[in-house]
Structure formats: C-alpha cells, structure tokens
Amino acid sequence: MSRLNLTRLRQMKAEQNKIAMLTAYDASFSHVLEQAGIDVILIGDSLGMVIQGQESTLPVTVDDIIYHCRNVVRGSNAVFVIADMPFMSYANAEQAVSNAARLMAEGGAQMVKLEGGAVMASTVELLTARGIPVCAHLGLLPQSVHRVGGYRVQGRDAETAEQLVQDAIALQKAGADMVVLECVPAALAAKVTNTLTIPVIGIGAGSECDGQVLVLYDMIGLTPGKRPRFSHDFLADTGAIQSAIAKYVVDVKAGQFPTIEHQY
Q1: What is the CATH number of the domain that holds 258?
Q2: Where are the beta strands (DSSP E) in 185-255?
C-alpha cells in the first residue's frame, strides 16, 4: 500500500473533499489513526508539551522529532506524514536544509512544516528547490509565543489580516505545498483558503478551510489543564479512543467540525 501524496491532497482540495489531520507521536496511535481514516499525521512539536511535559514547544529538538517520526512511520502504511521543524532548527539556510533533510531521510517524513510569514519565503524556496516539500504555518505561531505575548488570536484587524493573506500568497509562490492556519478569524481563513491553490488546514480557523488538524491529546481529553477553545473532546462523546478518532474523521469530512463554538 502506497502513502497518500501531494498530488492526491491537491485533488482533494479541488474536489472539495475535506482533509482530516491529527498529530501523533508513536506507532500505536499512528496505526489507530490510519485505521480510522485519517489522511495526514503531523509529528508536531506539541510533543514537547503533551509528551515531555514542557511549558512550551521551544525545548523540542530535531532528534526528538526524528525519533517520534520514525515511530509514526513504522505504525502506518497509507497516511501522509509531516514533521515539524523545531524552534531555531531553520534559523539560516544551512540549518534549514540540513535539518529538513534529516527529518526526511532519518525520520521518514514526506514533508516538513515551519512557522513564519513572507520572511520565510526564501527558506521555503531553498527547501523546495532541493526536493523537500514544505508546509507553511501562519496565524498563531507557538514558537514565537514569547514575542507575541501568549497564545492569542491573530489577524483580527484589517492590517494584520491583509498581511496574513499576503504572507500566504508569498509562501505559495515560494513553493509551499500546504499551509496551516492557527487561531485566526473564520472569515479570514476562508479568504486565504479561496485565494490559494494549495491545501489550507485549519486549527481554530473555522470550517471553510480545506481540512482540519488538532493535537491528538486535546481531542481525546488527555491534555492537562484547560482545553483550547478550538478543540473538542471526542472521547467524551464516544467512550472509546478508536471511536473518538473515527468520529473526528467523519465530522471533519462532513463539515460538521469545527462548529461556530470552536471558531473566532
């Protein structure tokens, strides 16, 4: 069985078939997610908080992501696999190419994800020119949490909203094959989704995106503390992890998640 590829993901956008995506960090959950019909697994630097117990994603290393990516790849056969590039692992061109190559060659990822707007366009262009597919990440940027003063919704005013749209266009032009939008108003996310030809995946960005992603531990109610507004405890609805993930897939595909209560 071959893995889902970028050609099919682009077709899904064109056909308006929603893309269901979740994070995962080990072989067992990777298998369960695949069996439930998840299209894409992200080995997120969220592992720093939900696996390692860190206060933020910043301490996560490239070696950490590689280790967990290997596990996810071993546990699955058909899902598309994306690996996060950790904080400061792409601060310059040499680092970006070297670390992205490791995530693919050693970790088995099919794509890498990095945070930042148009300022990252040259890095995206550099990576894609070398055959490394890139998923851009706009809106709330967890790796910049200290600079922006916390986990806040982005793009609420006209100026920052237009900047986000222009950033998305610049990143697509540079060669990005996917964009994640985190914590942005639903209307803005819809505008970005309709503007770009590449898939746009939302997390706290409304239901008009081409797909949705959540942190696995959030959507099964395991994350300590307050759950993010944009998430939902699917395990509480179903009573079993496999059923919770299957319900998430069904609800995303049917456009029933996220609802108005999960968006800004």
Answers
A1: 3.20.20.60
A2: 200-203, 211-214
